[in-house]
Amino acid sequence: MDYLESLYWIHERTKFGIKPGVRRMEWMLERMGNPEKNIRGIHVVGTNGKGSTVSYLKNALMANGYEVGTFTSPYIETFNERISLNGNPITDDEIVTLVEKVKPVSEALAEETDLGLATEFEVMTMMMFVYFGEVHPVDFTVIEAGLGAKHDSTNVFMPIMTILTSIGLDHTNIMGDTYLDIAREKAGVIKPGVTLVYAIKNADAKQYVNEAVAEAGSKGIKLDRDIQCVSSGEEFTFRYKDYELEDIRLKMLGYHQQENASLAIAALIDMYEQEMLHLDFNKMVSAIEETTWTGRIETIQEEPTIILDGAHNRESIDVLVDTMKQHYSDRKIDVLFSAIDGKPIGSMLYSLEEIADKFYVTEFDFPKALPVDTIYESVEHDQKMKIKEYGEFIKHYNGDLLLVTGSLYFISAVKAYLKK
Q1: How far apart are CA 171 and CA 45, in angstroms?
Q2: Taking Cα atoms as reference points, which of 296, 44, 319 lies closest to residue 165?
Q3: Cβ–Cβ contacts within 10 Å for residue 232, how many?
Q4: How far apart are CA 261 and CA 227, in angstroms?
Q5: Are 76 and 295 in contact (CB under 8 A)?
Q6: What per-residue confidence (pLDDT) applies to 148?
Q7: Roughly what angle, to the nearest 10 degrees, separates helices 345-353 and 314-328?
Q8: CA angle, 251 as apex, 420 and 343 as ends, to 5°?
């Protein structure tokens, strides 16, 4: 197989949909010799904030001289970036090698069991475990969960650290309608004896996770209880135990990013105290301050200003709106929005309309993308317009500030168009 054939085979798995559960993964991994047992992995789960937190951890570890692998989704610019080594996507040839290793096992799963066919995400997770556990072992692997946590295909290894970034109402059709339902799912990643660093706002969800940590006999390090993130606008002070790190100034905007960075710092300090790593605190802070993450309040053009953000649920849209108010209150903000099916677009649009001077809606080429008419009918803004060719619209935009948002998949499509 060549690279394109390998990609086609992987993408063909999408027709098997989303199948929560780990039995297929466990079967395939055992057949592969359990490569997941060879990694030193940090598991990052949560509704929002996972990608940024992974990036903070990766950069801080690299700054301290470690070789770091990451597993993230979805990809924004290139498919290969889902499995990255020291921040660089693995090569096309490595993708081919990994597909050649996992394809026979995936096919055997269907032929020899009644567990059904492996999904695309399961195949990618298998490829990641094989890469970092067998093909190219690294010092640390930072693994971002996909959908959910307990029943997510990444939840098949014993991490050295677990981070729960947030609990929000997303994918409610699969995980439940309440914060407590989602907390039950997320808490499924808590492992006995493995520290959980976490941030939860909702009271019911917070109580459930607190109890789950205690029941597992694990150490819990919680934002706003054990970790203090004291913001003074552009800068913040981090406090945990006797540690105090002042005047941290991130490149990524928003108080939520200061919280994400605080979770990453606390996790690194706990690993340092457990003698899992050596840590130069100055190098750690410098690396975290310089961290960026594509598609998160990302300015791709200064004049006129065009900002991309992959906010894709109610909570992340609310955070985006607050950040835009804080940093761009003096600007006329136009919004270009598109989303995929299954999202609470009514509440998402309602929040965005509050900051929008003009509201544009569009659609993009993706299996679950919502039709432009469906989105348009949900917009209540008095200046709303449909955009057929979003790429040309962005390219020729001549207003003050354009915010492009609604879906990470949409941001990926925009990036691909602009790259061409």
Answers
A1: 14
A2: 44
A3: 9
A4: 11
A5: yes
A6: 64
A7: 10
A8: 60
Express each pLDDT in 276-314 by its tens digit.
999 999 999 999 999 998 888 999 999 999 999 999 888
- Strands 384-386 and 358-361, bridge-based pairing: parallel
Tell me the C-alpha to C-alpha distance, in Å, between residue 221 and each of 186, 288, 332. Answer: 16, 20, 41
Tokens read off for 271: 């690993």
Q: Judge whether residue 171 has pLDDT over 80.
A: no
pLDDT at residue 141 is higher than 90: yes
Average pLDDT, the chain: 93
Would you tell me the crossing angle of helices 3-12 and 92-112 to the nearest 10 degrees?
Answer: 40
Whether the full predicted model's pTM is greater than 0.85, yes or no, is yes
Q: What is the CA radius of gyration of the chain?
A: 21
Return d(Cα 119, Cα 247) in angstroms, integer. Answer: 45
Predicted pLDDT of residue 393: 96
Say if residues 298 and 321 touch (Cβ distance below 8 Å). Answer: no
How confident is the model at residue 75, as a pLDDT? 87
Q: Could you read off the pLDDT of 72-122 as tens digits, one per residue? A: 988 888 999 999 999 999 999 999 999 999 999 999 999 999 998 999 999
